[in-house]
Design brief:
388 residues, alpha+beta, Translation, Eukaryotic Peptide Chain Release Factor Subunit 1, Chain A, 60s Ribosomal Protein L30, Chain: A, five-stranded mixed β-sheet, four-stranded antiparallel β-sheet, 11 helices, globular, Peptide chain release factor 1, BaeRF_family11
Length: 388
């Protein structure tokens, strides 16, 4: 089982804006298997040695360096933590603080020392969090699952959720009748649905629509303000009927087909993650197409100087960054002018990371992706809010 701590955008922004002359960022590939934790702890010790070497090379105070290494040493000694890992571990440490995140993405090992934290790889988990809800929808039952990067999905109790079609339609689940009237003609006493409409296949569709609307009403308080995909698991015609009355804007077009009463939660979660991969792939393809259109109109760039200036003046609309590439150097805080360095050391920081930080501050949409998904194939690319 994986254990994850995916940071929010606000958490990433807090890390990106923090400043300390001795800021150490470490990314470590790990394994969720407890028996493999010792190898990860050894690898981290080696990374700490490298961070210490870089700090001492620029004349950092030995007491402050010792404070960093002691904090990480205590963290390494916490054996209970090391039995609850995911696929990567991110560590951010100064002489007075240490923060960690367990991430579902497989990230490359990295050690960065500067006056700020190296957050670009951390954005990968925030870009594609592998989080969704699955609504397992059947005529005789409905359940809501929360899917995350963890292996185990969680069932969510929803207040007011109908138990089945009869419950959602306000019918007696035993007799299939309205509890407020038993007439067979005209209108059922006190009811709003003509009794003649709830007969046969057509009547069953009416009940399924009422059931679907009851589910939508129950889900609305939970989903208000969310932007997490909702994936339906179920069979026709109920799935189509539910889609016809659903109002949630992030309802996935893909469906997990079949009777969800016969599909275990873990299998629903596995199918949902495949659908999430499809959603993200389609989203990236659309963004790359948009980049090409913007580039033709002077509203996109892959030039380092142009993108750095655009980030400085809040002109980036969408930023793509390769999570595995780093360009050492510095960016002027006023003009956005870039100075690229030959060596990655404790004096320089990643200029793409600094572009990302400035884009975060201006509310840009950011996608931390693999190299093949960056338009132009470079370390970064950006669409702009106005023509350069």
């Amino acid at each position: 089982m994986q254990h994850t701590d995916i940071p929010s955008r606000d958490s990433i922004l807090s890390l990106a804006t923090a400043r300390d002359p001795l800021s150490v960022s470490i990314y470590l590939p790990t394994s969720p298997l407890p028996q493999e934790s010792e190898a990860s702890r050894i690898a981290l010790r080696n990374q700490v040695d490298e961070a210490q070497r870089q700090l001492l090379a620029v004349g950092a105070d030995k007491r402050e360096v010792a404070a960093i290494t002691e904090q990480i040493g205590d963290f390494i000694a916490d054996r209970a933590f090391w039995t609850h890992l995911s696929n990567s571990l991110a560590i951010f440490v100064t002489p007075t603080s240490l923060k960690t995140y367990r991430l579902p993405n497989r990230l490359e090992a990295a050690v960065e020392v500067a006056d700020r934290f190296y957050v670009k790889p951390l954005m990968r988990a925030a870009t594609f969090p592998q989080t969704a809800y699955v609504l397992a929808l059947a005529q005789n039952s409905v359940r809501l699952l929360e899917i995350s990067a963890d292996d185990v999905p969680h069932r969510i109790t929803v207040d007011g959720m109908p138990e089945n079609v009869a419950d959602g339609a306000g019918l007696d689940p035993i007799a299939g009748r309205s509890p407020v009237g038993h007439q067979t003609g005209g209108r059922a006493g006190g009811g709003n649905t003509p009794a003649g409409r709830v007969q046969g296949a057509e009547g069953q569709k009416v009940r399924m629509a009422e059931y679907s609307r009851a589910i939508v009403r129950a889900l609305r308080p939970l989903f208000n303000g969310l932007n997490v995909p909702l994936i339906i698991a179920g069979a026709e015609p109920l799935v189509s009927i539910f889609r016809s009355v659903a109002t949630y804007p992030h309802l996935a077009s893909q469906t997990i087909t079949g009777n969800p009463e016969e599909i275990p939660d873990a299998d629903l979660a596995a199918s949902a993650r495949l659908i999430l991969d499809e959603i993200y792939a389609a989203q990236l393809a659309a963004l790359r197409d948009n980049f090409a259109d913007r580039h033709a109109n002077g509203r996109a760039s892959t030039d380092l100087s142009d993108v750095a200036r655009a980030a400085t003046f809040g002109a980036i609309e969408t930023l793509f960054v390769d999570i595995d590439r780093s360009i050492p150097g510095r960016i002027d805080s006023e003009s956005g002018a870039v100075t690229v360095a030959e060596e990655d050391n404790a004096v320089n920081y990643g200029v793409v990371d600094e572009i990302l930080r400035r884009a975060l501050l201006s509310g840009s949409q950011i996608f931390a992706v693999r190299a093949e998904d960056v338009p132009g194939g470079g370390a970064f690319a950006a669409t702009l809010r106005f023509a350069a």
